[in-house]
Sequence to fold (528 residues):
Amino acid sequence: MPPRVLISDSLSPAAIAIFKERGVDVDFQPDLGKDKDKLAALINQYDGLAIRSATKVTAKILEHATRLKVVGRAGIGVDNVDIPAATSKGVIVMNTPFGNSITTAEHAIAMMFALARQIPAADASTQAGKWEKNRFMGVEISGKTLGIVGCGNIGAIVADRAIGLKMRVIAFDPFLSAERALDLGVEKVELDDLLARADFITLHTPLTAQTKNILSADNLARTKKGVRIINCARGGLVDEAAVRALLDSGHIAGAAFDVFIEEPATQNPLFHHPNVVCTPHLGASTNEAQENVALQVAEQMSDYLVRGAISNAINFPSITAEEAPKLKPFIALAEKLGSFAGQLTDTGIKEVRITYQGEVAHLKIKALTAAAIAGLLRPVLQDVNVVSAPVVAKERGIVIEETVREADGDYESLVTLEVVTDELTRSVAGTVFTDGKPRIVNIKGIKVDAEFGPSMIYVTNEDKPGFIGRFASLLGNANVNIATFALGRDAEGGSAIALVEIDGATPPHVLQAIQRLPGVKQARALTF
Fold:
């Protein structure tokens, strides 16, 4: 019996043709995604579910999906899919991370031109019979400085187009290497420098804890007078109310938004301002882009359902069923080691060195490396997955070096991750014990023994008497309960580290208080 796929959103007919060519039965019901009860009633009949943004794949839907093996999202964002619930059900979730790149980049350039020449307002005025030629004085793009926040796949395409328009391009992206910036022809800068210099600012970064409100009221106030802001990336990257206030004051000359904090955006602080251009999330809305993502999702889902091949999976690496039992705990270890390093890295990464020693060196290390890089990049690049992570790292000029060695220490298997930035080299090592749980056993050459917890506090400090007592008392007085407490030091009176698992999230004021403790060099809240 051939596998069956349900397409519950509007998708190009090209997808249906691909499924049929590859021996997959297709049920095309483009309005079904809007009826969650009917979807829940029918989903148990299908092996695959192909969606866009209208279908919400919730835990409730997945409970009824007794036969479902894969969900394919034609597009980048998977906010409408409950990833943990899908993972626990053993459902692969795929996306098409690069199908919309050119279309979104072109929309940003179009919005920039619309702002520079006030095209929407001039069009409305002219069609109203006013002929207000002197009212719409524009500015040239040529010779202006474009500041790009996020210079990944889409940002790099925008940079290429802008350079062709004879603009000066500067970019802020912690993961952009100096070599990659040189190849792109852009100047890598810090955010404050970009804010002070850019005539136009365009955002091309995912919405993460680090990038949320990156153009805050304070940051917007530091921009160059007369700046124009373009956001075709994600709602929530920019303080919309602050933009409106600075538009009203004349500090910001114009704003063009394709995405909003609340969508559908029926009301917004930016609406009805004469120097604002708004579009209804059209970044991916071209015939070519829709064709691309439809073809890609159909190809990926067919390959998985017919041949077992996995590509662009959000929640699982490309491994076979035979390899999975041995690889699974080490994939978890690699991803957590990467996440540990990624949450502590604030500057551009130049190189990642991963050493596999002992039994783990004989496993499929490419899958482990992909998991480690995904964990490393995910704190900043939320949409990255184990398949796209090596590609994303390559785009940013990050060199990845893998080394395999026989066991020569205390552990049957040891994975060591070194991250090289412009400022330092950070290393962390871990292993998997017989209980199958990943553990950290070494940080920066200092021996520790700690399990990964959902919420942790990492502290580096001077090794002096009294610190542990002050630290523990501070947490106790703040009603923060300690689950585990791991310590290590390089020498008596030297550098020490503490890795503490706590119950619940770390309150910001508690972290600030820890940072003020005597002898503390660094304190970070980590989540796994």
Summary: Residues 279 and 483 are 49 Å apart (CA to CA). The chain has a mean pLDDT of 91. The two ends are 41 Å apart (CA to CA). The chain is about 35% helix and 25% strand.
